[in-house]
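Structural prep section.
Before we set up the soaks we want a predicted structure of the protein with 2-acetamido-2-deoxy-beta-D-glucopyranose in place, mainly to decide which crystallisation condition to try first. Input record follows.
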Amino acid sequence: MKHFVPFSALLIGVQAAVIDVNVGGPGVLKFNPEFVTANVGDTVRFHFQQKNHTVTQSSFESPCVHLDQGFDSGFVPVADSVTDNFPLAELNVTTTSPIWAFCRQANHCQQGMVFAVNPGDKFAAFQAAATGATTTTTSSSTPTQSVITVTTTITTSNNQTVTSTYVTSPGSATPTSVPSTDHKIIVGGTGGIQTFSPSNITAQPGDTLTFEFHQKNHTATQSSFAAPCKPLAQTSNTGAVGFDSGFMFVADNATTFPTYTIQVNDTAPIWVYCAQQNHCGNGMVFSVNAIESGPNSFEAFQAKAKTLNGTKDASSSATPALSRNLHGAGIVFTVVAVLFGFLL
Ligand SMILES: *[C@@H]1O[C@H](CO)[C@@H](O)[C@H](O)[C@H]1NC(C)=O
Ligand SMILES: *[C@@H]1O[C@H](CO)[C@@H](O)[C@H](O)[C@H]1NC(C)=O
Ligand SMILES: *[C@@H]1O[C@H](CO)[C@@H](O)[C@H](O)[C@H]1NC(C)=O
Ligand SMILES: *[C@@H]1O[C@H](CO)[C@@H](O)[C@H](O)[C@H]1NC(C)=O
Ligand SMILES: *[C@@H]1O[C@H](CO)[C@@H](O)[C@H](O)[C@H]1NC(C)=O
Ligand SMILES: *[C@@H]1O[C@H](CO)[C@@H](O)[C@H](O)[C@H]1NC(C)=O
Ligand SMILES: *[C@@H]1O[C@H](CO)[C@@H](O)[C@H](O)[C@H]1NC(C)=O
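Run finished without errors. Recording the tokens verbatim:
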């Protein structure tokens, strides 16, 4: 009987390792190797070979069910003609507890395409449960909020290839490798309208955002969820500067409109406002990939802009939770602190 011992405590100071794992390949419905032993700080690097697989976190109890809040690479299709420079996904090991995963393509999991980090002596049982798996009950395990960084090549609509690195953050949309889309956003317009239209969108890595400036004098300036009406550079603690179109004056009788285009690089939310006078406080904000199911929705962002910079009375608005996104080292941490009577 083997015992699983967390050695990590003894190994402080030892160089972190990179452990390579191949995913799929011609006629191969397997992770190779099928499990690895890793220390905290090690990186498991998945090489997606030919065909179309995922690496998706599950649980020991439900091997073929995506764990709530667990990581997911999304589908990574690789053409048969590709034989080198395969797309990669990196998983940073942050726990000595077992991490269970599977491929969620078709019935690959039921054919035994499962993977584990630090399974101890339980891998065979896990794989057996996968191949017998018919149920799709949701797991009751406490999720380990791991993230995975995927580097893949995306072919855009004009046949250019863009190498995109994206991070899947818990709760965010799963990225997919599809031809990229340009999203047009109309900024302002006649009659003094203070809007981004549409006001909130979802976009994939590799997509572009084109802000088209209509009448009056607006900007599209990147901010953060915590401080909707301040440039990202002023509030970021990671050195992120954020984009800024600058003021775009458009005459009332204009018939052509200036544009400003920015590429979407990952699935993390992007928060934007207009820096003209009181426009932000009036709710002239925009988001990409806001997580509508959580506290950092577009609606919450817009409400916060109005509370912090508008005429909305802050003391009467019951806003007990302060959520802030710390966007550092490619990871999105959401810290929710309950603060009464104090709003950043
Ligand atoms: C990859 O598989 C997914 C799920 O079956 C499918 O939706 C997607 O279209 C596939 N991609 C390619 C390029 O075949
Ligand atoms: C994983 O670890 C590497 C090396 O420490 C680091 O460069 C990378 O940013 C980390 N990625 C994530 C998603 O934590
Ligand atoms: C967010 O966008 C959707 C789709 O465009 C729209 O229906 C919704 O009203 C928007 N939310 C707000 C608060 O404007
Ligand atoms: C646009 O607005 C900015 C900021 O209020 C101002 O400095 C600039 O002069 C305006 N441009 C025009 C052409 O009115
Ligand atoms: C919003 O309010 C903050 C704090 O008073 C201020 O620093 C910021 O410049 C304001 N933003 C706009 C766009 O007026
Ligand atoms: C708009 O109006 C201004 C001043 O009234 C004029 O100089 C300009 O030529 C007009 N532009 C167009 C596109 O009609
Ligand atoms: C995406 O990356 C490009 C190139 O590094 C950068 O100019 C752009 O600002 C990034 N987009 C966003 C939304 O941060």
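Observations: Residues 198-200, 298-299, 302 surround 2-acetamido-2-deoxy-beta-D-glucopyranose (ligand 3) (CB under 6 Å).
Flagged for discussion at group meeting.
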